[in-house]
Specification:
Helix content is about 30%, strand content about 20%. It has a single domain, classed as 3-Layer(aba) Sandwich (Cytidine Deaminase, domain 2), CATH 3.40.140.10. The protein has a five-stranded mixed sheet with strand order 2-1-3-4-5. Helix 2 packs parallel to helix 3. It is of the alpha+beta class and about 130 residues long. The chain contains four helices and five strands. The longest helix has 12 residues. The chain binds tetrahydrodeoxyuridine (THU). The site of tetrahydrodeoxyuridine (THU) has 14 residues, from helix 2.
Length: about 130
């Protein structure tokens, strides 16, 4: 899947963002190796801490449908901010467990695009191997 294509799908997902408090809209798309896609958007709450970020919504949608990390080809995260929105700390922790460390993560504003991965975004993780 081309970056341009997955970015477009993530922007489409952003249309479902529910962000009446921040007015900051995020969309995300998980592309699977078998051609399936899963989408997410940030969903806010009047109790602000209950907000779910766009990338967590997308990865949870994928996992909820039986997808696992080895099935995932790439993840795109887009926003309508003035600069590229990198995943927040909570999302990095979640994604570090649910994505392979080198799975491409495409961040884009539409104008500017950066490709990264969890190995880069969250080195020295705390993960399932620590609990053994
Ligand atoms: N947000 C995301 O969806 N992803 C991030 O990684 C950064 C923050 C959302 C949460 C909230 O709805 C809005 O952006 C402002 O923080």
């Amino acid at each position: 899947m081309e970056n341009k294509e997955i970015i477009e799908l993530a922007f489409k997902a952003m249309e479902n963002s529910y962000a009446p408090y921040s007015n900051f809209h995020v969309g995300a798309c998980v592309a699977c190796k078998d051609g399936r896609y899963f989408f997410g958007a940030n969903i806010e709450n009047a109790s602000y801490g209950a907000t779910n970020c766009g990338e967590r919504s997308a990865i949870f949608a994928a996992y909820s449908n039986g997808v696992r990390k080895d099935d995932i080809e790439k993840l795109a995260i887009v926003s309508d901010g003035h600069r590229i929105a990198a995943p927040c700390g909570i999302c990095r922790q979640v994604l570090s467990e649910l994505l392979n460390p080198d799975t491409p993560i495409v961040l884009s504003t539409g104008e500017e695009t950066v490709v990264t991965c969890m190995r880069e975004l969250l080195p020295m993780t705390f993960g399932p191997e620590d609990l053994q």
